[in-house]
Specification:
single chain; about 230 residues; alpha/beta; Rossmann fold; 6 helices
Length: about 230
């Protein structure tokens, strides 16, 4: 597989996953692994990965869960190209499609998905220092897409009772829960992630069901990175 001069080829999951990433641009973090492990996937589910980046979450789901097919949507051409090559590199092109598109433009057919996953930009515009690297800036700040945009897209592509799963800053948990209900997603599962037993939570994982009934299951807390590591 041909690499560009600004890319690396890394191995994960004891060599079962090979991944092309930008050397200095956006590289995936533990957030992606935690979300892929957390989301509920049933046999033959169709999954839409919004803001897929290099395809890491899509690939983890295809390798670790009973996914039928994944549509990985990415707005940045360089990252979408990496996702295409990563699908080929890992032998899953027959089960993974990559779409270079803006999720705000409704590029995916309505009611096609059983599950939507998204590791969205965490930071509001104007909050914190904007990373000078555009790939990283778009991934971390709500420059090109907001939480409302993401949930609107999820609502469009999901089947009735379909599930949406996101990882989000714990400090913005109320924002997330309020917006989920505004788009007719009832929070059903939640897991709080702590850096250690002595520190405040930094992240939260939430899964909602479209048109679901009330009642949320709060899972045991996850400390540090749990059983996962992004070390190649």
């Amino acid at each position: 597989m041909k690499l560009r001069s600004d890319e690396t080829l890394d191995e994960f999951l004891d060599g079962r996953l090979r991944l092309i990433q930008s050397e200095r641009g956006y590289r995936f973090s533990i957030d992606a692994i935690l979300l892929a492990q957390f989301v509920t996937v049933k046999p033959r589910d169709v999954v839409v990965d919004l803001g897929a980046g290099c395809g890491i979450i899509s690939l983890l789901l295809l390798l670790e869960k009973p996914v039928g097919y994944v549509i990985a949507l990415e707005i940045q051409k360089t990252l979408a190209d990496q996702a295409v090559r990563n699908a080929a590199l890992n032998g899953v092109m027959h089960r993974m499609g990559v779409l270079l598109a803006d999720l705000r433009q409704g590029p995916i057919r309505k009611s096609i998905a059983d599950v939507v996953v998204c590791n969205p930009p965490f930071r509001r515009p104007g909050s914190g220092r904007l990373n000078p690297d555009l790939q990283r800036a778009i991934a971390r700040h709500e420059i090109m897409v907001s939480l409302n945009d993401i949930l609107s897209a999820a609502s469009t592509v999901l089947k009735p009772k379909g599930r949406v799963a996101v990882i989000y800053p714990a400090a913005r948990l109320v924002d997330l829960l309020v917006r989920l209900r505004a788009f007719d997603f009832e929070p059903k599962r939640m897991r709080v992630v702590y850096p250690s037993m002595e520190e405040e939570s930094k992240l939260v994982l939430v899964e909602g069901a479209r048109g679901g009934k009330g009642g949320v299951k709060v899972l045991p807390p996850l400390i540090d990175q749990g059983d996962f590591s992004i070390v190649s």
